[in-house]
Design brief:
Blueprint lengths: L8 H16 L3 H5 L1 H23 L3 H27 L5 H27 L16
Helix pairs in contact: 1-3, 1-5, 3-4, 4-5
């Protein structure tokens, strides 16, 4: 059973995604595109932050809503990676690694959303007993 947001596999994957994105955006060509660098970094941080905020929220509905935002942010990272690839800021191998990690985060967040939205009982945030992919 997850007692802290750090116990959630979805949060841990989103954290890893943020680390990868920050490393990629430090590359010389990428680092000079301030707009894209800032956008993709903010999206990656938003994915992990919204999972954490949702876990600590008061209600099941708010948790599900914030998970939806986290999922959207991870999808934004995926989309921004195409721009970075097309501008040749990153290699195809770097793109594939980051894309796969973003996709994994999206799947894990979606599974957690399904669990939260289907939890029985009062609309308070349920005890989370999911630690990984279903």
């Amino acid at each position: 059973m997850a007692e802290r947001f750090e116990d959630l596999e979805a949060w841990r994957t989103a954290r890893e995604l943020a680390k990868v994105i920050f490393t990629l955006t430090e590359k010389e060509k990428f680092s000079r595109d301030y707009s894209l660098k800032d956008q993709i970094r903010r999206a990656s941080v938003s994915a992990m932050s919204n999972v954490a905020e949702g876990f600590e929220s008061r209600t099941q509905n708010l948790f599900a809503d914030l998970l939806g935002r986290a999922k959207g942010s991870a999808a934004e990272v995926r989309s921004d990676l195409y721009v970075a690839l097309d501008r040749e800021y990153i290699s195809r191998e770097e793109f594939d690694k980051a894309y796969d990690l973003a996709d994994k985060a999206i799947r894990q967040i979606a599974n957690l959303m399904t669990y939260v939205e289907s939890a029985p009982g009062p609309r308070r945030r349920p005890k989370v007993n999911i630690l990984g992919d279903r």
